[in-house]
Design goal:
Blueprint (H helix, E strand, L loop, with lengths): L8 E3 L7 H31 L6 H30 L3 E3 H34 L4 H4 L2 H26 L17 H5 L5 H37 L4 H30 L7 H12 L1 H13 L1 H17 L1
Antiparallel strand pairs: 1-2
Helix pairs in contact: 1-2, 1-10, 1-11, 2-3, 2-10, 3-5, 3-7, 3-8, 5-7, 8-9, 8-10
């Protein structure tokens, strides 16, 4: 029996068997990661430099871009390295670090999306109290709570997962280290149940956030539909649609990947879904927000124009 203390490395799922396809995946991941880095970097710079974006939504959007950058930088570089070097290995310590940071950034992102939903709820349903409920100190406290909760969530799961003895080999059916795939290698019934209990508690917490988002949007849509003018309704909807699109993309890909029926599961489908929820959203989120946010588009255009003429 081999356990986690003596295991030196894990084997990740190969993106492809043929060398040509491996290089194609490398180029694809490189393009996605560069697009995500550029787009999120532009949002970070625009929010930091333009005083028109020094708003609660701008502040939370800056934090969201940080989580997107963290997600893309946690999983993609190792996958690109393995594709380029024609290998599938990752060290035990590297796997633990990857699992911790991926869980950290993903959970922090979901908590931030929940807070951003509250921001939209207050802006539309309680506009007269917006400055009071979402002052700079309140925003900082909420963002800090999201980051701290994500850190505690990932720390507990990582510590418990890597304390389990592993006796089912070292091959992970995933292109990055993720909790469910490591649990499949465990031979500790009590440790498995302990992690299962943590996951149930986490699921309840995330489900509570989901219910809050649904309830908030029900109230938002009711308030918007009571606006008499079509222009007012359109403006109110346009401020909510980017957030709703990002939340829908995040939840639909994650939930379908982890809750899909076993009858339709296959290695290629699992790989495609894992790429869809871990790699694609960080690249799409900035595009979704910039398409519907005129102030953000103007700030990015002004910043890029200034840089061009400065040169």
């Amino acid at each position: 029996m081999s356990n986690s203390s003596s295991m030196a490395q894990f084997l990740l799922l190969a993106l492809a068997d043929r060398r040509e396809l491996q290089l194609l995946h490398f180029c694809l991941f490189l393009a996605i990661s560069l697009a995500a880095l550029l787009a999120n970097g532009l949002i970070l710079s625009a929010v930091a430099c333009d005083h028109h974006l020094h708003t609660p939504m701008g502040f939370f959007l800056l934090n969201l871009s940080l989580t997107d950058l963290g997600c893309i930088c946690t999983t993609v570089p190792k996958a690109m390295h393995n594709s380029l070097q024609n290998t599938t290995t990752i060290s035990y310590q590297g796997c633990a670090a990857q699992l911790f940071f991926f869980a950290f950034f993903m959970s922090a992102e979901f908590f931030l999306l929940t807070i951003m939903c509250y921001d939209r709820y207050v802006a539309i349903c309680k506009p007269l109290h917006y400055g009071t409920l979402l002052g700079s100190r309140a925003c900082a406290h909420m963002a800090a709570a999201a980051w701290a909760t994500g850190f505690l969530y990932s720390l507990l799961h990582t510590a418990n997962t890597f304390s389990l003895p592993l006796c089912q080999g070292n091959a992970l059916g995933q292109f990055f280290c993720e909790i469910p795939h490591i649990l499949k290698l465990s031979c500790s019934h009590s440790g498995y149940l302990r992690e299962l209990g943590l996951m149930v508690f986490s699921a309840c917490l995330l489900f509570g956030c989901f219910i809050f988002i649904v309830f908030s949007y029900v109230q938002i849509f009711r308030a918007v539909l009571r606006i008499p003018s079509p222009q007012g309704r359109h403006k109110a909807f346009s401020t909510c649609l980017p957030h709703l699109a990002v939340v829908s993309l995040f939840l639909s890909t994650v939930l379908f990947s982890h809750l899909k029926p076993p009858s339709i599961s296959s290695p290629s489908l699992d790989l495609a879904l894992s790429v869809l929820y871990s790699v694609v959203p960080p690249a799409l989120n900035p595009l979704i927000y910039s398409l519907r946010n005129q102030d953000l588009r103007d700030a990015i255009r002004k910043m890029m124009t200034g840089c061009f003429f400065t040169k």
